[in-house]
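Lecture notes, unit on binding sites. The following record was shown on slide 14. It pairs a sequence with 1,3-dihydroxyacetonephosphate.
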Amino acid sequence: MKKQNLIQLQKDYRAAQKCLIGFNVNDIYDMKAVALAAEEANCPVMVMTYPPVVELNSSYLCKKMLEGIQPYTKQPIYLHLDHSVSVDMCKKAIDDGYDSVMIDGSQKSLKENIAMTKEVTRYAESSGVLVEAEIGKIMGRGVVIKSDDDFLASVADVKAIVEEANPHIMAVGIGTAHGFTPTTPKIHFDRLLEIAEAIPNPLVLHGGTGIPDLDIQKAITMGVAKLNVGTIVHTTYMKELYKEMGKDLNAAYPPFLMKDVIPRIKDVVLNRLEAVNFKRALSHKVCKF
Ligand code: 13P
């Protein structure tokens, strides 16, 4: 299947109320699980590498891993650098052939966030690589929140970064949290709607592991065209591997263990693809759902 330019795909998705899922991956095994799920679900996917994966393996190697995995599906797999706080890491990923990078200046002042984002969008311009920026904060993982104002994306700030730095898609803090949360995150749909009315850019929802399906589906109807899912992928990987290893640690041989672990990661990925492809599920036209 032809790999459509991601910037255009995201625009089309927002217009059609569709959503691409970016899955955080760490190596060839979970990447392969995502590819197999994409093939089964019959829809494009994104694999995303967090900075520690890039620091350990290099963006060059991550790109090569994807090239090796792509033949497992006819569906396009887009490669994304997730939550990079480093402009240089974004530039290197662009040079190494990533389809998409996120420059995360959300912990900085608006002025610094705009400046960092602008530097990356300018650098990405000639390559056609998509740039994601963030306003507001995604809770969890040490992000301390005292009141709604600490995390909730301000409409004025979102407009300012879009107008001045020109990122293609916008991650917005609207109440979601990274990872498993003790209580269901309360999503501020009113703010999401205000943002969607203020800017035409496709919006990104982070913290996909803990968001109920109905909330995901509602957000998609309000301009969310990309959903990030990470924790459920890597905890499934680790727990299932641990289970398999525990059967006979002295005989633990990676290819034999991974043969059983990959399909279980694939099932989790498939389950999330099912959640965003709910319209196809209702029509029963295109895919198996
Ligand atoms: P989860 O780990 O909650 O799925 O969130 C992933 C994410 O938002 C990565 O950017």
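Take-home: The chain has one domain: 6-284.
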